[in-house]
Amino acid sequence: MSREVMEYDVVIIGGGPSGLSTAIKLKQLDKNLNVCLLEKASEIGAHILSGNVFETRALDELIPNWKELNSPIKTKVSKEKFLFLSKTKSLSWPTWLLPSVQKNHNNYIISLANLCRWLGEQAEALGVEIFPGFPASEILYSDNGAVKGIVTQDMGLDKIGNKKDSFEPGIELHGKITVFAEGCRGHLGKQLIKKFDLNKGKDPQQYGIGFKEIWEISDQNHEEGLVMHTAGWPLDNNTYGGSFMYHAENKQVFLGYVIGLDYKNPHLSPFDEFQRFKTHPAIKKILEGGKRISYGARALIEGGLQSLPKMYMSGALLVGCDAGTLNMPKIKGSHTAMKSGMIAAETIIENLKEKKDLSIYEDKFKKSWVYEELHRARNVKPSFSWGLIIGIIFTGIDQILFRGKLPFTLRHRRSDHETLKPASEMPKIDYPKPDNVITFDKTSSVYLTGTNHTENQPVHLQLKDSALPTRYTLEKYDEPAQRYCPVGVYEIQIENDNPKFVINSQNCIHCKTCDIKEPSQNITWVTPEGGGGPKYGNM
Amino acid sequence: MKILVAVKRVIDYNVQVRVKEDGTGVVTDNVKMSTNPPDDNAIEEAVKLKEASKATEIIAVTVGEEKAQETVRKALAVGADKGIHIKVDGIIEPLAVSKILQKIVEKEKPDLVFMGKQAIDDDCNQTGQMLSALLNWPQATFASKIIVKENKLEVTREVDEGLETIEVNVPAIVTCDLRLNEPRYASLPNIMKAKKKPIEQINASDLGVDTKPRIQQIKVEEPPKRKSGIKVANVAELVQKLKNEAKVI
Question: Which of these, A350, A426, A505, A535, is most buried using a 10 Å CB contact count?
Answer without folding.
Answer: A535
